[in-house]
Write a structure and sequence with these properties.
Helices cover 59% and strands 12% of the residues. By secondary structure, it is an alpha+beta fold. The strands form two sheets. The protein has a five-stranded mixed beta sheet, with helices on one face. Strands 1-3-9-8 form a four-stranded mixed beta sheet. Strand 6 (451-457) and strand 7 form a beta hairpin.
Amino acid sequence: MPIEPQGGLPGEFLLLFTLVIWMLFFIIRLGNPQNMLNRWCFISGMIFSLGVLKEYLYFTLGPELLRAFPSLFTESSAFAFYSLLTAIFYYFSMPSALVFGMYFGRVDEHCPRLFSWLKPCVFIPGILMGFLYPYPETRYFQLHVRTFFPIITAYNLAYALVLTWQLLCTLYRERLEPYYHQKKTVAVLVLLPIWYWILSALLVHSLNLRHFFKAWQGNFLILLFLLVYFLCRAFRGGIMGTRFRHEVFEWDKDGQMMSQSARCIRHLCKNELAKIDWCAKNLTSSHSQTENDEYAHIILRSTEHLKNCVEKMQYYSQEIHLKRERCSLRKLFASCADGFSRLHPEISLEILCGQDLFLHCDRAAMLEVFNNLINNAVDAMNGSGRLSIKALPSPGQSQLNISFTDTGKGIPPDLLPRLFAPYFTTKSSSDGHMGLGLYFCQRVVKKHGGRITVDSTPDAGSVFSLNFPWKYVEKGSGGKGQKAADIS
């Protein structure tokens, strides 16, 4: 039987369509290879991709192969191959999606014995369909048997209804769980292309609506959108075990991240290990208990310093996970200022913050940011000066502005662009300064949806400004309101 020309998208677009499907489901598979939900999502996606791949292979690549290799490829072999791929697609794509749905609903956990035999049973109707419409001849049934498409439509429609019911029941049952919104997103990602395929392909062919035979190719736009959406979610918070992190660094300059880390660790260890080595050599030759105690104390201080620096490096460089809560800004500043006057009696600390200012933030991370900025200001003032902390809404109340103003030595203009780069510091690294503090501050502020900037004048001081999205939030009763920074 000769290969008839087909309308619709050009063959190259069908190949691109297939690659988009593969890319989406390979990313899902790689997100968590051990997770059965990811595995069966990948399997069903690969089977669904056969629906597009067979069109490209048969109608676009097939004629080229027949002309180039007539002794290896014949019309009958191309016909049988197309029929086989069509059968796998029609008979087993929805059963594999239903297995995914069972893992989605945790049937394997709630009813393990039922699941153990139910899982293979969902494929039995597909095997039986092979006896009703044999796999190598499905192309013939498509073209010449009028009952083929209505039966195939009813078969896949039944699976789609069960799958949809299963996903919706699961979402309703787990609507109060913390992962509900992500599971709802996954359900939409799965059901949208499935129902579009059933309505635009199977139902259209069952009703013999010839003008709409290629409407199923609109799924290309749906899947392309889902791929972009999936990648955006992977960068923003993660989805189905996949999370991407975008980190900006100056790849075309000498200060690359890895070499900076290595130099920082080498310098840190070199200084402390030299002390430990010197003390150890003296301990072997010293007979004075007083000297031995002194050497032991130096070793303990060095090891403690190394431990603290390594822990701080790990904490500052690891991925930031926020646990947001409604925090009073005044109380956050009070925690930072506790004992400040005793530790720095020559520095005047001024805090200007209203009682009704609140921040929806990760308390521990934000305290670390505030403490970093305060400690930097203290170091810049060399023990004496004035530090002013202000928290005020912007004039239009669209942002909350928090500023840390010191009267220190300031920062040279040529260093300002590098100030938030990892491992860059204007201080002595021998004092434990690794250049990760401001880098960490910037990451935390960005994670909260804000931004951090600096304005500095040499020998006059610096101003570090934190800006967060601002919303007026009504709280309490009696018409009284409280303002809160609502960060999303």
